[in-house]
Amino acid sequence: MQQTAQIGAMPAEFRELENLVQGWSLATEHERRERRATAEFPELRAYYDVVGPRMRDIAAHLDAYPMGILPAPQKSLLQLALMYMEVAIAVEFYGQPELRDGFPRHRWVISPR
Protein backbone atom coordinates (compact mmCIF):
# COMPACT_ATOMS: atom_id res chain seq x y z
CA MET A 1 0.00 0.00 0.00
CA GLN A 2 1.48 3.32 -1.08
CA GLN A 3 1.66 6.01 1.58
CA THR A 4 1.58 9.74 1.07
CA ALA A 5 4.90 11.52 0.96
CA GLN A 6 6.23 13.48 3.89
CA ILE A 7 5.57 17.23 3.52
CA GLY A 8 8.79 18.99 2.63
CA ALA A 9 10.19 15.97 0.81
CA MET A 10 10.64 18.13 -2.31
CA PRO A 11 12.10 21.57 -2.91
CA ALA A 12 9.31 24.16 -2.85
CA GLU A 13 9.21 24.62 -6.64
CA PHE A 14 8.59 20.88 -7.10
CA ARG A 15 5.96 20.31 -4.41
CA GLU A 16 3.52 18.94 -7.00
CA LEU A 17 5.84 15.90 -7.21
CA GLU A 18 5.76 15.13 -3.47
CA ASN A 19 3.12 12.46 -3.87
CA LEU A 20 5.60 10.51 -6.04
CA VAL A 21 8.42 10.37 -3.48
CA GLN A 22 7.11 7.40 -1.48
CA GLY A 23 6.79 5.01 -4.41
CA TRP A 24 9.26 6.34 -6.96
CA SER A 25 12.20 8.08 -5.24
CA LEU A 26 14.39 5.01 -4.92
CA ALA A 27 18.01 5.00 -3.79
CA THR A 28 19.57 2.33 -5.99
CA GLU A 29 19.61 1.40 -9.64
CA HIS A 30 18.47 -2.10 -8.69
CA GLU A 31 15.40 -0.74 -6.87
CA ARG A 32 14.56 1.53 -9.81
CA ARG A 33 14.89 -1.29 -12.34
CA GLU A 34 12.69 -3.57 -10.24
CA ARG A 35 10.08 -0.83 -9.81
CA ARG A 36 9.92 -0.27 -13.56
CA ALA A 37 9.86 -3.96 -14.41
CA THR A 38 7.08 -4.80 -11.97
CA ALA A 39 4.84 -1.77 -12.57
CA GLU A 40 1.83 -1.81 -14.84
CA PHE A 41 2.44 0.11 -18.07
CA PRO A 42 -0.31 2.70 -17.42
CA GLU A 43 1.39 3.50 -14.10
CA LEU A 44 4.71 4.01 -15.89
CA ARG A 45 3.04 6.20 -18.49
CA ALA A 46 1.41 8.34 -15.80
CA TYR A 47 4.78 8.83 -14.07
CA TYR A 48 6.42 9.69 -17.38
CA ASP A 49 3.71 12.23 -18.21
CA VAL A 50 3.99 13.99 -14.84
CA VAL A 51 7.78 14.09 -14.40
CA GLY A 52 8.85 14.44 -18.03
CA PRO A 53 7.71 18.04 -18.52
CA ARG A 54 9.67 19.03 -15.39
CA MET A 55 12.98 17.35 -16.28
CA ARG A 56 14.66 20.50 -17.63
CA ASP A 57 13.66 22.38 -14.48
CA ILE A 58 14.83 19.50 -12.30
CA ALA A 59 18.21 19.38 -14.05
CA ALA A 60 18.65 23.14 -13.75
CA HIS A 61 17.73 23.05 -10.07
CA LEU A 62 20.08 20.17 -9.24
CA ASP A 63 22.92 21.75 -11.20
CA ALA A 64 23.27 24.30 -8.38
CA TYR A 65 24.25 21.59 -5.86
CA PRO A 66 27.38 19.46 -5.49
CA MET A 67 26.23 15.88 -6.10
CA GLY A 68 28.06 14.37 -3.13
CA ILE A 69 26.28 16.44 -0.50
CA LEU A 70 22.70 16.95 -1.61
CA PRO A 71 20.19 18.07 1.02
CA ALA A 72 17.37 15.54 1.51
CA PRO A 73 14.79 17.34 -0.71
CA GLN A 74 17.27 17.59 -3.58
CA LYS A 75 18.30 13.97 -3.12
CA SER A 76 14.65 12.91 -3.43
CA LEU A 77 14.35 15.06 -6.54
CA LEU A 78 17.48 13.48 -8.06
CA GLN A 79 16.09 10.02 -7.36
CA LEU A 80 12.82 10.94 -9.07
CA ALA A 81 14.83 12.13 -12.09
CA LEU A 82 16.84 8.90 -12.17
CA MET A 83 13.58 6.95 -11.98
CA TYR A 84 12.26 8.99 -14.89
CA MET A 85 15.22 7.85 -16.99
CA GLU A 86 14.44 4.25 -16.08
CA VAL A 87 10.76 4.72 -16.96
CA ALA A 88 11.44 6.65 -20.18
CA ILE A 89 13.02 3.67 -21.93
CA ALA A 90 9.97 1.55 -21.15
CA VAL A 91 7.58 4.20 -22.42
CA GLU A 92 9.54 5.46 -25.44
CA PHE A 93 11.11 2.25 -26.72
CA TYR A 94 9.65 -0.89 -25.16
CA GLY A 95 5.99 0.09 -24.94
CA GLN A 96 5.85 -2.15 -21.87
CA PRO A 97 7.68 -2.41 -18.52
CA GLU A 98 10.35 -4.81 -19.77
CA LEU A 99 11.92 -5.67 -23.09
CA ARG A 100 10.48 -8.87 -24.50
CA ASP A 101 13.12 -11.55 -24.87
CA GLY A 102 15.68 -9.29 -23.18
CA PHE A 103 18.38 -10.36 -20.75
CA PRO A 104 16.57 -11.64 -17.62
CA ARG A 105 16.74 -8.94 -14.94
CA HIS A 106 17.28 -11.48 -12.14
CA ARG A 107 20.62 -12.35 -13.78
CA TRP A 108 21.73 -8.72 -14.11
CA VAL A 109 23.80 -7.77 -11.07
CA ILE A 110 24.56 -4.12 -10.52
CA SER A 111 27.54 -3.55 -8.27
CA PRO A 112 28.64 -0.22 -6.83
CA ARG A 113 31.99 1.20 -7.82
Core attributes:
113 residues, 52% helix, globular, disordered N terminus
Give the tally of structural domains.
1
Low-confidence stretches: 1-7
N- and C-termini, Cα separation: 33 Å
Q: Work out the radius of gyration.
A: 14 Å
Q: Tell me the β content.
A: under 5%
Structural class: mainly alpha
Discrete helix count: 5
Largest sheet: none
DSSP summary, beta strand count? 0
Give helix % range.
40-55%
Q: What does this entry look like structurally?
A:
The radius of gyration is 14 Å and the shape is globular. With 113 residues, the protein is mainly α. The longest helix has 23 residues, at 72-94. The relative contact order is 0.18. The protein has helices at residues 18-24, 29-38, 41-51, 55-62, 72-94. α3 packs across α5 and α4 packs antiparallel against α5 (72-94). The protein has five helices and no strands.
